[in-house]
Amino acid sequence: MVLELTESNFDEHVNNSNLPVIVDFWAEWCGPCRTIGPIIHEIGSTYAGKVVVGKVDVDNNPGIAGKFGIRSIPTILFIKNGQVVDKQVGAVPKPVIVKKVESML
Q: How much is the pTM?
């Protein structure tokens, strides 16, 4: 499952999570974001119950993007215990993301 993260629910699902969190920063108009989107959804299904997976639309939630200094999309943050432990900027193959997810477990 992939959550739609907004400024109103971000703390609840990310900062207060007992599980590692993957946050995909994206926008509807971003081609590489649409390419990586299905991979994010697959990871959400594969790792359900082990990680929280969420997406932040940067156009609708500029405060969250600004807080993390997101300047390019797609950007994926890997967060554990409320702290960013890894980051991926740009579209990459699924094994690259899976390796980063596995390193958080």
A: 0.95
